[in-house]
Amino acid sequence: MTDLADFTRICRADNGLCVVTTLRDDVSVQASVVNAGVVDHPVSPTPVVGIVAAGRSRKLRNLRVRPRATLVAKSGWEWVAVEGSAELFGPDDPIVGLDAEALRLTLRAVFVAAGGTHDDWDEYDRVMAAEGRTAVFIAPDRIYSNS
Prior knowledge:
Blueprint: H1 4-13, E1 17-23, E2 29-35, E3 37-40, E4 47-53, H2 58-65, E5 68-75, E6 78-89, H3 100-113, H4 121-130, E7 134-145
Antiparallel strand pairs: 1-2, 1-5, 3-4, 4-7, 5-6, 6-7
């Protein structure tokens, strides 16, 4: 049985890199490479796959209209996919009850879960705010793989 532990293992084997797909207005697939990691949702202890997206990215634009995504991680010939609904948390996508400090900490948590490290967290926070970075949480409906 494939689960989020498999996603984490395979994703980490390639530095947290995976492909995320969203749907455009014409319902064709838009794909991009992102860093991803499994984190607890900031409101509930439910594990979700998290990514950080630039504020003006196409994936955010697509997810605001059609909040579903698929992420695929691979390592060698092994891969695992996570499909599910997406929730956004950022300067243009607030979550009731969470403030700017919660966003700052959430962006760090997703970055670290995706394998990121930083020598200057204050600079990281400044850049994330300046770029309007948004945390995207994918709540898995399906997880499957080729193993």
